[in-house]
Amino acid sequence: MSSVAGTLGIVIGLASWVGALRWLRVAQREHYIPGRIWLFVRLWLRESPASIVIAVVGFFGAVSAWSSALPRIPHLIAGAVAAAASIAAPIGLGLRGRTSPLALTWRLRRLALVVVMVDLVVVGVGIAVGEPLGAAVSAGWLSPLLVDLALRITAPLERRLMGRFVDEATSRLRRVRPRVVGITGSFGKTTTKGYVAALVEGTYRTLATPASFNNRGGLARAINEHLTSDVEVFVAEMGMFGPGEIAELVSWVRPEISVITAIGPVHLERLGSEAAIVRAKLEIVETARVVVLNVDYPRLALAANALEQEGARRVVRVSAISLEADVAVKPNDEGEVVVYAHGAKIAKAALADVVAGNLACAVAVALELGVAPEDIAERLGRIKPAPNRLVAGVSPTSGVEVLDDTYNANPMGARRALDALGARRDGGGRRVVVTPGMIELGRRQYLENFKFAKAAAQVASHIIVVGRTNRRALEAGADEGRDEPGSTLQELRWAPDREHAVALVREMLEPGDVVLYENDLPDHYP
Q: Quick one: 402 and 375 in the same domain?
């Protein structure tokens, strides 16, 4: 009986570690940033009361499993309960994932190895004090904290390993010597990058970083894999998770022209204030001789004045509002956008759903690189929306118009998407908004989602709220908006995930209807 019980104890202890796989997946999806795991533990427990119950049961099971004074069977049952809780909770956070499965990269394998080593240390302590089962199930039950600990342990190693690729990318940049354009902003980075490439290619051989390769590893990979000897202009998107990150990128990428597209609350969760966001974004100007700033944002207008007074670099102001800016892009009454440089019209084009401020940034960059105004005018027709950023199309099977804005997650972009949906109301069909809301807005997250849903109730006939992350804010905003004069909202529904939401859309819509998919969250969000 003793050997059987011991074997069962080992099996139970190992089973309790299975739950760590889900937290490894969260770590991977959150760019291996220490501290993010605990944020998601709180988020899932907040949105899933059943998970709280399971966690409490698991806690008491783990505590009981430490007591070898219990009879053998109750002791094993306590361990089994704790192991089951570590596997089951949080309810809905899958081990494999539907939208973002675990990718067995070398970095993940190294992290998993360290997690196992930490688990074994905990078990070793348990063996030393005569409580191996309690230690094993506790390690499984505390797997979120242990994964986060492993992230902190491996961070210096991973930075050193990545340094080799950064050194290679730095050497390649020095050999090729392209003119470098660095683009950052709270939002609009990827769209502006695409606009710049469209306007400059043809005058210069141009390389823009693919997809959202905008951090240290992504930029190094883009350079090492794609920067060939004939590239004359390199357009680098630069993102950040905290202060100092853009400064580190600039230290080796060294932009000649730096662009800040917008400032908004997108990074509030990590930086705390818009003033801190501006300071972090302004790190991009360090090596630049020219700085392009969208002065429609008051904080960037102030930054433009301050940089100009310093005199170390030239400031180019752009706007989608004021013709007094160095470069302005504004719509006319014929549905075209008109491009102005220093007050003079240089181009116009019929561009649907173009982001005028982002286009103004791109035109300013093209002019600074020496692209002729007539070439800019001719190339405006190449401007395409970035994938999944307010891309319009009609489904060939259903005849439903789809506005795909699934990669947008900021309040201004969300309002622009609602404007695009509202502009389609003349067709008379149903207009549906499908959204999980916006994230990483810190203390403003509830308010911004509330305001978005309230505004959506003025243009949409149906709203489908996806998931639980922002459900309360979105439903409250939609309910208030429905009670206001002019509301078009007929129905508010909830779907547990994107797949269920898409199924609802397919059931209710017909040719001539329009659906806006506003943002999409990976499934490690509740």
A: no
